[in-house]
Amino acid sequence: MAFDMNLVQRGARLRRSPFFEATQRHGAKAYTVYNHMLFPICFSDLEEEYWHLLNHVTLWDVAVERQVEITGPDAFAFTNLLTPRDLARCAVGQGKYVVITSKDGGIINDPVLLRLGENHFWLALADSDVLLWARGAALNSGLRVKIREPDVSPVQIQGPKAREVVHALFGERVLQLRYYYFLETSLDGIPVVVTRTGWSGEVGYEIYLRDGSRGDELWERIMEAGKPHHIRPTGPSDIRRIEAGILNWGADMTLENNVYEVGLERLVDDDKPAGYIGREALKRIKAAGVTRRLAGIEIAGERIEFNATPWPVKAGDEPAGRVTSAIWSPRLKKNIGYAMLRAIAVAPGTALKVLIPGAGERPAKVVPRPFVDPKKKIPKS
User: 333-353, pLDDT tens digit by residue?
Assistant: First the structure.
């Protein structure tokens, strides 16, 4: 039975993706709101979907990754102004995982950036309004840019059989894509961009639809190509992304955090010759050190459900921070997650106590992250 959208929506303020009718037809059981859009988060039991992702292939409607497109004569210079990464090192046809930083070094968003031309960029967004931020940043910059949301809607194909599915759709050329590279092509006349990216820690691809009127066609074409490989629609797997060390903006990091607190310092190119918003703040933060850090944790005891609120953490009898994401890992047979902790409490092995609403206090400890495949051999394979 299709999910009753009247339970969450009145009117047209919340947008529906080009794949919405397909997700209803294929039995989406729950939605959330993400970037002002309806986002299907599950079609079945979450643990069942997790195992299917690990063993077969899954299809996700992630059109909520709304795009910011930056074009114009100064598009490179302007986009380079938004991020600590040096985009001179990003070739046309390549993508980068980046952070967009505020003047005080806070993380506004952590999109995947695609460079479609010398002066043509897309930012595939997490759940915050970068379109408005970018337009504000451009207002008095003196740079000649056009900033808009294009008609672009991605889906993700994730899992060990993802390669076989995209091969059936696009032929040999797609198999030559390196991790974080992409190609522009079409499928039965449907214009798309295919990227070697994903949010699962598994082998993955994203297909960016460039004509929203053809969402249903694209969805069913993918399902048909995936049928021999047991493809099924699912929501993104929080179990798998936590195992992989992938962070969720709005939970594991917010505007109040900086890259050094959440372990994303690799996204700062210290030798970047061009200036960017937040550069001086990040220099000061790096020199002074941080007072809190995001750490991996294991929580003892029977399985927990995915946390809906931050959970208080203690070290001894003193408040130490909060759990940002925590869930049961079926293959590790452990409760795992992340906690934002006082910097003195993040050494591996540090004993903690986590207060779980309705379940009481549980022993926990700090552990290295990611929990699975630390060198990303699986998605890069």
Answer: 999 999 999 999 999 999 999
